[in-house]
Amino acid sequence: MKNNMSAKRLALIGMLGALGAILMMFRFPIPFMPPFLSFDLAAIPELIGAFALGPVAGVLIVFIRVMVQMVISGSNSMFTGELQSFLLGVALVLPASLLYRHKKTRKEALLGMTAGTLVSTLVAVLTNLYLIIPFYVALYDMNMDQIILSCSKVNPMMNSVTTMVILGIVPFNLIKYGISCLITFAVYKKISPMIHRFANRQ
Question: I need a labelling partner for 21 at 20 to 30 A (CA). Which of 10, 48, 86, 118 fits?
């Protein structure tokens, strides 16, 4: 029975990870934001899975989503983009699911997702400044001034690293993860009974 239930949990984890990868295919830029950032809703199945199945399951869903995404689209960043995507996903689902696991109320879910959004935004700033941008600068023989110039073309107020972070990276990720969290908050209680019934069915 335990093996059967574990298999069902693994099947759910795999399906939610694959759904996240499919949602990644529909990403798009947001006006006035840095052109190297793209919006998607892959965090929704990751949050739902983390809430329903626990923090470890949430991390596995993020991992599977990244792996499936690489199979579908490959990697044009020598896996640095995929590493960043994994770190951002984990930074979102872990705080959210750990707080929700402590006390399974709508208020705790909202607090958890708020914490996850803030943590993932901080991680996005660090990974963009110290992982993604340096990689592309080295790969394409660019410099930081060229990155800033590409940002200033969509928003003239982004004319330095500081303004790119304050006006670009931070608000973009707050918007991206904030919207994903709000959608999750709206739908989770409606679909979680189906997830639990499937996972616990003998």
Answer: 118
